[in-house]
């Protein structure tokens, strides 16, 4: 569908190629065991996932700092499940989480295969709201860094998706116009609406079973990209 017009494919990283929830679960398992935190991991994750999602939205909207994000998502989760965590414990766990998260390297099913499929015909890039040092480690440890010509993160851009400045920077670095580019990501707000506002084509990888919409085409499996590119 986009084969005749698209030359460059921009991917989101977390929740799109890199399996954030699976790697995050393994990270919490590791740091809870290391620091003898006596909580049920499944119970913790049920509370943590939506809290983390909400704090990332605030962070994306520039309403909280990186430090607030990292502290409050743990504090509020522990409060919700009734575990009395000290500030020292929360700070230690927060540091351990960041230190170990990128050491786990699970990608979504078909991620390597679709990148291999696309590479001969398209230039591939990343636009991510994640932190620079963490995201590069994720890409390297998952053995997908070499697929990408340009990797733009929010720290480099000074803004986060859906702010148009991060997309503009990525297009400039890739030396490609918006109408020859497509954005593939899991966030309707950050990835899809952000990209379309600048004139990029878009594919929504609906990894969270969000309601259907008419903003752009929706895929539920990375292999479905072959239907469009």
From TrEMBL:
<dbReference type="InterPro" id="IPR006439">
    <property type="entry name" value="HAD-SF_hydro_IA"/>
</dbReference>
<dbReference type="InterPro" id="IPR011951">
    <property type="entry name" value="HAD-SF_hydro_IA_YjjG/PynA"/>
</dbReference>
<dbReference type="GO" id="GO:0008253">
    <property type="term" value="F:5'-nucleotidase activity"/>
</dbReference>
<dbReference type="Pfam" id="PF00702">
    <property type="entry name" value="Hydrolase"/>
</dbReference>
<dbReference type="InterPro" id="IPR023214">
    <property type="entry name" value="HAD_sf"/>
</dbReference>
<dbReference type="InterPro" id="IPR052550">
    <property type="entry name" value="Pyrimidine_5'-ntase_YjjG"/>
</dbReference>
<protein>
    <submittedName>
        <fullName>Noncanonical pyrimidine nucleotidase, YjjG family</fullName>
    </submittedName>
</protein>
<dbReference type="InterPro" id="IPR023198">
    <property type="entry name" value="PGP-like_dom2"/>
</dbReference>
<dbReference type="InterPro" id="IPR036412">
    <property type="entry name" value="HAD-like_sf"/>
</dbReference>
